[in-house]
Amino acid sequence: MTAERKTLGVSRADSGPKADAKANFAATGARLERLKERAKEQRRNPTDAQKLLWEHLSGSRLGGVKFTRQSIVGSAIVDFAAPSRWIVVQLSNDEVNPDVHELQDRKLIEVGVRVLRFSQEEVIANVDNVVREITAELNVPFDKRSARRDAGSRTSTFVSDEG
């Protein structure tokens, strides 16, 4: 019997952290509802940098790619998301611990989402350069099938209640 328990323990370990990362990535229930409310509030009160960048991203202006703002991706609210390309754009401010940003980025990257992070100051000082970097990433070939195969099914990963 002891050998069976060890085998079961090893079996669980083999399903490993990658399976857990995908399974625990998306928010559900009460947490999802709180995230939706917080995202709505953030859309109502964007920062100056978010307003400025949204002027360039809204209306599918970058190569016809649709962006949403303050979208829920997994268990995080991202500033801008292009679900068709699995790209998110995050704007950092000095008030948030950089370790939090690193953790959020790592969780997104683990499931195949490409993360572009800029400081709010960078957006305000040189929005054209930021838009060029985003456009360059949008033009990088992206195979949805291989991304899904690598990261599993993500049908509930991107959530947006923005109309």
Spell out the blueprint of helices and strands.
Layout: H1 2-23, H2 29-44, H3 48-57, E1 68-73, E2 76-82, E3 87-92, H4 98-110, E4 114-119, H5 120-125, H6 127-138, H7 144-151, E5 158-159
Parallel strand pairs: 3-4
Antiparallel strand pairs: 1-2, 1-5, 2-3
Overall description:
The structure is a single chain. The protein is α+β, with helices and mostly antiparallel strands and 163 residues long. The protein has helices spanning 2-23, 29-44, 48-57, 98-110, 120-125, 127-138, 144-151; strands spanning 68-73, 76-82, 87-92, 114-119, 158-159. The protein has a 5-stranded mixed sheet, sandwiched between helices. The model is unreliable at 1-19 and 152-157 (pLDDT under 50).
What are the main properties of this structure?
single chain; alpha+beta; Endonuclease, Chain A; five-stranded mixed sheet; 7 helices; 53% helix; 17% strand
**CATH superfamily, called what?**
VSR Endonuclease
Quickly name the level 1 CATH class. Alpha Beta
Please bin the fraction of helical residues.
Answer: 40-55%
User: Widest sheet: strand order?
Assistant: 4-3-2-1-5
Reported by name, the CATH topology is Endonuclease, Chain A
Low-confidence stretches: 1-19, 152-157
The biggest sheet amounts to:
5 strands, mixed
